[in-house]
Amino acid sequence: MATPPPKLNPAQKALLKMGLRRDIDLALHLPLRYEDETRISRLADAREGDTVQIEATVTHSEVGLQSRRQLLVTVDDGSDTCTLRFFSFYPSHQKTLAVGARLRVRGEVKGGFLGKQMLHPVFKLASGDLPTALTPVYPSTAGLPQAYLRRAVLGGLKRANLSETLPPGCPNYNPGYLSQTGLQRNYYLHEALSFLHNPAPDVSLAALEDRSHPAWQRLKAEELLAQQLSQLQAKRARDLLQAPPLAAREDGLLDGLRAALPFALTAAQQRVGAEIAADLALPIPMNRLLQGDVGSGKTVVAALAACTAMDAGWQCALMAPTEILADQHFRKLVAWLEPLLAPLGKCVAWLTGSQKTKQRREMLEKIASGEAALVVGTHAVIQEKVVFKNLALALIDEQHRFGVAQRLALRSKMVDGVLEPHLLMMTATPIPRTLAMSYYADLDVSTIDELPPGRTPIVTKVINDARREEVIERIRAQIAQGRQIYWVCPLIEESEALDLRNATETHAALSEALPGVLIGLLHSRMPVAEKKAVMALFTEGSMGLLVSTTVIEVGVDVPNASLMVIEHAERFGLSQLHQLRGRVGRGAAASACVLLYSTGDAPRLGQIARARLQAMAETNDGFEIARRDLEIRGPGEFLGARQSGAPLLRFADLETDGELLEWARALAPQMLDRYPHLAEQHVLRWLGGKAEYLKA
Ligand code: ADP
Ligand code: MG
Fold first, then answer.
1. To test ligand 1's pocket by mutation, which of 257, 265, 271, 300 has the most ligand atoms within 8 angstroms of CB?
2. Cα(366) to centroid of ligand 2, in Å?
3. What's the pTM value of the predicted model, to 2 decimals?
4. Which pairing describes strands 372-377 and 315-319: parallel, antiparallel, or unpaired?
């Protein structure tokens, strides 16, 4: 029988929840910032915005009932008075804060009409000596008091094995710093950690908070090295796996499709096609990301890769994140490939969650027998019940919408468990170089860097919602010319708090303003069949205007649509705006994107929203957009699903630590070759069990 799990108190549970299991995890849990509790300030010297510690006596205490119930406590330190304001408090707080009590209070000083104030300061009875060194403040979570966490971290630091893992004689990660500062050498790991966790009495706040300090540099270098090592390990492990080699064949589907296409491939499409073909011809699984701006023509490149696999007698699967997108791929691929597959007794199968049982059973049979050479669908493609006869190539569209687990599931679909399928992921959200070098170091990347010819650039206008009428006028003119329009709203139901215009209401208002125009409504809560019917009317051109929530965000391709209106554009993320804009400008007609913004009650837009809209107006280039998006959002959010479960960089900042990243990239392969033991130890120390996730 298994031993029952030990009883944990809430703080211990919180530690585990934060991933702080091992001594080394605790030792590497570094302070967010430091507090200076070594000094008592005089209230009279404190300026607005200063965070200070004072010692003062309570002169007045009352529970006020102004707009909200609150505890107001006046303290006096002899130089000045200050009001402490608490919106949440317990009877025990009131007791400590009773008139006459001598307190040590820490908080940010706010000026104000009624004199100095502190909102929810930290306080305790004044007693005992002041600490002699700065106090570290650790990233924490609910139910985990700083004092407990601090003790746990110091305990972990004492017990953890901090032996050096950087190989002897390895290149210096920080030559610039050493020469600038005249320091002789970099910090050892144990020195760096004890410096950051246990600041000596003479260390200043500035030295600790400046992450260029040698102690920080050491940790950032370590962290980046762990990331590079684990990705390289994953890549090398994958290179040991076997995949069916798929050599391109003449006179097959590949040639057939090329001949049937109504356009010539761009040079970029040909180039990435060749890169993919070279991977497929090898007996090791491809792990490639195909990135190209919206509308750059990734689908046809994927279809050609699928032809190569089918020509070699294997099956292919294409997975898309939404049913609308999967449906669109299906139609396009059926139109291209069915005429070529039918004479061979093969077909394209279709799998989604909303499918009728009978149809689904038929599809599953065709997939199992191999009659379905190509399977297109949503997440349904990776469900357990789906058994392929011989899957050799998995294509994932809009890969950033899928998580690691889903990608792993698709790869496990290989029949006999010996051969792995080749994997090609597609994205219209290109990965900036620094991210590609760090988080995606294990991935090969192909880039389509040109659009098909004949596209006119999209003109983007940022317009205040007050000028809505003019926009509607413009829609009328466009529709009169036979063009089609998207109108995107952010939410489907009125939310009082956000006061967003609801798609249904907008649909009604536009229908009234544009009599005689067929106007559709599309939102995520509609039944799938209805969604598809609406989408079909829009695709065939009989619907002039489509009001929609962001369900049309990814991949939808209707070349006759030439105007995209995005309402409350200030609420969208940059990549999302770019994706939405990419729904137009797909045909030869001049296209435009109108970003309607509303400032609500505020006189102006917030700074971040303004930066986003400005970026949209300034550039159509998906790479530039991605770069600015990363700048605005930071890597955590930018990476999204890829990182669920996988560790983000905690200390290194790709913006400023490019040199350390280069160092880690250069060292990782040498270290794996020459010091595999140290490499192993290093990865285990930093990533523990999390490294598994990188293998996806
Ligand atoms: P995305 O890269 O955004 O997935 P799609 O694959 O949907 O782009 O392609 C966008 C449109 O461009 C489609 O209508 C497609 O048929 C068309 N297209 C793709 N390649 C070319 C080309 N070389 N010349 C002209 N049109 C093309
Ligand atoms: Mg696409």
1. 300
2. 26
3. 0.72
4. parallel
CA angle 294, 296, 299 (to 5 degrees): 95
- What are 205-254's pLDDT values in tens digits? 887 877 878 899 999 999 999 989 988 988 888 888 899 999 988 889 99
Predicted pLDDT of residue 416: 59
Q: Which CATH class is domain 52-125?
A: mainly beta
- Ligand 1: lining residues by beta carbon, under 6 Å: 263, 265-266, 269, 292, 294-300, 428, 452, 555, 557, 559, 586
What does the pLDDT average to over 674-682?
A: 95
Q: In the chain, where does the domain assigned CATH 2.40.50.140 lie?
A: 52-125
- Determine the Cα–Cα distance for residues 307 and 301; give it in Å rounded to an integer: 10
User: What's the CA gap between 485 and 476, in Å, rounded?
Assistant: 10
Percent with pLDDT over 70 in the chain: 90
**Which ligand 1 atom lies nearest to the CA of residue 557?**
7
Counting ligands in written order, the one closest to the CA of 300 is: 1
Dist. CA 232 → ligand 2 center (Å): 29
| CA 31 to ligand 1 center in whole angstroms | 49
At residue 647, the pLDDT reads 57
Tell me whether residue 682 is exposed, middle or buried, using C-beta atoms within 10 angstroms of its C-beta: 0 to 12, 13 to 18, 19 or more: buried
Residue nearest to atom 23 of ligand 1 (CA): 265
**Best mutation site among 258, 294, 296, 376 for ligand 1, i.e. most ligand atoms within 8 A of its Cβ?**
296
The tens digit of pLDDT for each residue in 336-383 reads 999 999 999 999 999 988 888 999 999 999 999 999 999 999 888 887
pLDDT higher than threshold 80 for residue 695: no
pLDDT tens digits, 436-446? 777 777 788 89
Strand order in the sheet with 592-597: 459-464, 592-597, 561-566, 484-488, 545-548, 519-522
Q: Which ligand is nearest to the Cα of residue 449, counting in written order?
A: 1
Residue 489 has pLDDT above 50, yes or no: yes
Determine the distance separating the centroid of ligand 2 and the alpha carbon of 370, expressed in angstroms.
26
| pLDDT of amino acid 399 | 72
CATH of span 458-619:
3.40.50.300
Counting ligands in written order, which one lies closest to the CA of residue 325?
Answer: 2
Q: Are 490 and 597 in contact (CB under 8 A)?
A: no
Which one-letter amino acid corresponds to residue 187? Y
Instruction: Choose which residue among 258, 261, 263 to substitute to test ligand 1 binding: the one with the highest number of ligand atoms within 8 A of its C-beta.
Output: 263
CA-only gyration radius of the chain, Å = 30
Q: Position 689: which residue type? A: G
Please, what CATH class does the domain formed by 253-448 belong to?
alpha beta
Place of tokens 């160092």: 663
CATH 3.40.50.300 residue ranges of the chain are 253-448, 458-619
